[in-house]
Specification:
three-stranded mixed sheet; mainly alpha; disordered N terminus; about 5% strand; 3 strands
Length: about 250
């Protein structure tokens, strides 16, 4: 619906009500154009959200892989340092002066060997985790490419519809702007509120065969006379739609 702009002309209530009806007809035509798009806009939005989610997932997985690689490098450094200490202690054992010093160095060697064993165990765990993460990355990448391909198809279809209807939508938007210029803010707000709640977006309907053409309930004769006069806004007491005289 077009945005309200301040009108310089003081239109009568009848003119305002009929401008509302004109706006309704224009909005209904735009609604029909949008129906051609069907679920495409929502599908495009869902695919874009899915792609964003997959990109976030890939970034998180890559961060986890980098962390595992960093831990693996750290464990390998610890193994290298432990091997260097073992070599150093063994060399010192050759020059010890008593059995107590030899046993003390032997305990240091055992401790470093234990550190090497524990680091090796961690490295195996990291390797298993890295393999699992790599598989998840490949699966996410494959899904991402699939989603991107689907998005390209949906966007191309949606862009095609937009291109075909752009001229008509532009013309209808200009017409809606003219109609809105005759309607005050209060009536426009009421129209928008009703339109958002009723079926098919029909907020303004005519009286046909003595009945509301929105819900088909009978309208009393006196009320029909008031509607034709257009001195005040009258809504259907059954469905809440704004009532205007039949175009016939």
């Amino acid at each position: 619906m077009a945005q309200k702009k301040t009108a310089e002309v003081d239109y009568s209530m009848y003119e305002k009500i009929m401008a509302l009806y004109e706006l309704q007809k224009i909005d209904s035509q735009i609604d029909e154009i949008n129906k051609v798009k069907g679920e495409l806009p929502l599908e495009v939005e869902d695919l874009e959200d899915s792609i964003e989610g997959l990109n976030t997932r890939l970034a998180n997985l890559n961060n986890e892989i980098e962390e595992l690689n960093s831990l693996s490098r750290q464990r390998n450094r610890e193994i290298d340092e432990a091997n260097m200490l073992i070599a150093k202690y063994k060399e010192q054992q050759e020059n010890v002066r008593n059995n107590r010093e030899f046993q003390s160095l032997d305990k240091e060697i055992e401790y470093q060997e234990l550190e090497i064993t524990l680091a090796g165990k961690r490295l195996k765990e990291y390797a298993v985790a890295l393999k699992a993460k790599a598989e998840l990355v490949e699966a996410a990448k494959a899904e991402l490419e699939e989603r991107k391909a689907d998005l390209d198809v949906k966007k191309a279809e949606l862009d095609g519809i937009d291109a075909e209807t752009a001229g008509q939508v532009k013309e209808l938007t200009a017409q809606a702007k003219l109609a809105v210029g005759k309607i005050d803010e209060r009536l426009l707000a009421a129209y928008g509120r009703i339109r958002s709640k009723v079926r098919n977006g029909l907020a303004v309907v005519t009286v046909k065969r003595d009945a509301c053409s929105g819900c088909f309930n009978r309208i009393p004769t006196q009320r029909q006379s008031d509607i034709r006069l257009g001195k005040k806004l009258i809504v259907c007491e059954y469905c809440g739609r704004i009532l205007v005289p039949s175009e016939e």
